[in-house]
Fold this sequence. Notes:
This protein is mainly α. Helices cover 78% and strands 0% of the residues. α3 (35-47) crosses α10, α6 (94-105) runs antiparallel to α17 and α12 (222-255) packs across α15. It has 20 helices and no strands.
Amino acid sequence: LSMLPMQIHASIGKFTLLAIPFFILAGNVMEKAGISERLINLAEKLVGHKKSGLAIVAVITSVFFAAISGSGPATVAALGAILIPAMINNGYEAGMAAGLMSTAGAIGIIIPPSIAFVVYGAIAEQSIGKLFIAGIVPGLLIGAALIIVSIIICKDMPIKQSEKATGKEKWIAFKDAFWGLMMPVIILGGIYGGIFTPTEAAAVSAVYGILVGIFIYKQIDFKEFVDLLVESSVQSAVVLFIVATASVFAWIVTTEGIADSVGAGILAISAGNKILFLLLVNIILLITGCFLDAISAFYLFVPILLPVAIELGYDPIAFGVVMTVNLAIGQVTPPVGVNLYVACPIAEIDLKTISKAVVPFVLASIAVLLLITYFPQTILWLPNLMKIK
């Protein structure tokens, strides 16, 4: 018992975890600054005139907003409040609109900056910058898969189409959204250019968000800024408390040899076959994602599964992305997919309706998961191309 306080302090005293409160603050500030409305307006001007335009808008804006908020439920809440009612009013089925928005929002923990990648990098002692870059292609692939499925589903729906925007309207919308679009560029560009570390990038993104929200978009006054600081502090405390308590469990599992025993058991079941091992990992994590948040799941499974993956010759960066995608899909898998519970009240439907509607989108996401699992170069080629360390 005397070791527990030391272990708790050590788990949250890592410099890399300092990125968490900064990214949370940056996401909250940019959301309050009205960036979600600006991103939706830009996407509508670009593709809103197509029959499945609003569905495409939902996916595109989710990808961009995810790069700002880094949170699946936050993405669903911020964008869904605007897009789900708009889609329903334009002829989309309520279940389809909510299901798509829930799944698109799950991209939030895959597209950088991702708190999930920060935590995995801290546990596995891997490059967070490399994890950030490695998450881009899988996130975009899931986005593309969701768009394809949406187009197929929307074929027989009586959807209203808006008029095609003029070049001037597109330019005005782009200028309005420009400062929000620049945040992920600054974060990833700074890391890629070696200007700052991921933790420093988090601090820069927070300062950038504050400057944009207060002085450029002018939608945050002093009282709202103080409220944002309090809200972000509470959210950060919750995340770091989960990190602290989960790390104690992971420490016990490791020191008592439980991780080695379970890992050896999984290795024996898979008979040392990498393909079978990865299939088992996906099944375990997909089920886990239905009940546990990503941070808790990382502390539970990284000490058990990562050593086996490395022993079988699987890259730890690719493995981290595979784990994260699994847990992202868990956010939209009934019975406890958190994104579903965020979207249901917005669409005014019950869990049964959205659970049925979300199935095609979950299957599309699983198809991408299998692709990146068994072809890890789809994950690694971009960080290798950029020579991220």
